Amino acid sequence: DYVGTTDGPKEPKVEIIHIPLLRNSKTPFFYLLAFLAAYRAIKKVKIHIICTESFVWSGLVGIFLSRIYKIPCTVDIRANYDDVIKYYYKLIPLCLKRALIERLAKFVLRRCSHVFPNSRYNQQKCIAYGVDPEKVSILSPGIKFADVKIPKKDTEIFTVGFIGRLIPVKGVDYLLKAVHYLVYDIKFTKFKVLIVGDGPERKSLEELSKELNVDGYVKFVGMVPSTRKFEWISKFDVLVSPYRTLPELGMVNAEAYMCKVPVVAFGKGGHPEPVLNGKTGFIIPIGDYKLLAEKILFLYQDNNVRREMGERGYEFVMENYNIDKQILTLKKVFVNLLHIN
Q1: Which residue in 260, 261, 252, 190 sits closest to 224, CA to CA?
Q2: In sequence order, which residues have a C-beta less than 8 Å from that of residue 206 and are 6 or more positions away?
Q3: Is 50 exceeded by the pLDDT of residue 241?
């Protein structure tokens, strides 16, 4: 934005100091080392707002620094940590980890200046933790619509797609089992599957596709640049999100709707949020690969429903995930915090 002065509009002096807090370190030493790194940075440059990406890792550091320097600290919530914590510190019982996460969440979120959850689900969790609703603003990653160029679909064959990192939580093995069920039980073969992305599970997934004898229907595309993401999604007739955990958001679902592609996702209770069950796609029970196959077949058989779901998804995303709206939310909170401070 630009500010008005007596000499005309001038660009405001805003500087962002990024502190890379040991990306690959999730040990107890993380907190001490992160605190020292941030402390040294703040001593060198006057900081007006501290922004942290998680109450689990950097949020605790940010809270202590905000108390020392008496400056606002905001905290983002970008994941469902009840599920994410399963994959860290596996020697610790899950019930104990969840209890610790809840205590940490309450401590950090109640003491920060403002919380930016990425979904309604996380917004409600914040309020349940005792955070003042006035201090909670939903902030989704957002999509910059002006930069999205959607090419026309370049293939006639019905195409099922997945896009994302190939890790266990993404549940791509369920998609392969659904393909097997379609081919050998339902006897439907007029389709192909594009799996876009890479990760530690790729080799085992390729082996599974051969074991299931569906490798002739499945193509592993590998990693693609983010600049070509929409180019690949536009090749799909339906996007599949077979996550093992409960994804309260799943931004790839919103990105599919930018291409007017309906989504079939694992979830429950209105999650993932971008998918409006029966309107923009389907939400089915986690792990039910047979029902996943049936929904894929249904969307193949009814072109009108598939097109209508894609159109509704596009309208929903335009209304709720426009990055300009997210920026205005962020700006309003920051201006208010600076004014109070």
Answers
A1: 252
A2: 215, 220
A3: yes
Q: What three-state secondary structure class fits 194?
A: strand
pLDDT at 14: 67
Residue partners of 250: CB distance under 8 A and separation at least 6? 241, 243, 265, 272, 274, 275
- Model pLDDT, residue 1: 33
90: phi then psi, degrees, rounded to nearest 5: -65, -15
Answer whether 265's CB lies under 8 Å from 253's CB.
Answer: yes
Domain count for the chain: 2
Q: The tokens 């020292």 sit on which residue?
A: 36
Same domain, 129 and 175: no
Considering only CA atoms, which of 215, 204, 156 is closest in space to residue 180? 215
Q: Structure pTM? A: 0.77
Q: If you ran DSSP here, which 8-state letter would residue 186 be given?
A: S
CA dist 110 and 336 (Å) reads 18
Name the DSSP class of 13. -
- Domain identity same for 164 and 226: yes
Q: Give the model confidence (pLDDT) of 46-94 as tens digits.
A: 888 999 988 887 888 889 989 998 999 999 998 777 777 776 777 888 8
- Rounded to whole angstroms, the Cα distance separating 331 from 341 reads 15
Domain boundaries, position 332: 3-142+322-340
Return the structure tokens found at 46. Answer: 């006057």
User: How far apart are alpha carbons 302 and 278 in whole angstroms?
Assistant: 13
CA Rg, the chain, in Å?
A: 22
| pLDDT, position 3 | 39
d(CA 201, CA 162): 14
| CA 155-158-160 angle, 5° bins | 105
Is 263 found in the same domain as 214?
Answer: yes
Given this model, what pLDDT does residue 137 score?
95
Q: What is the pLDDT of residue 130?
A: 94
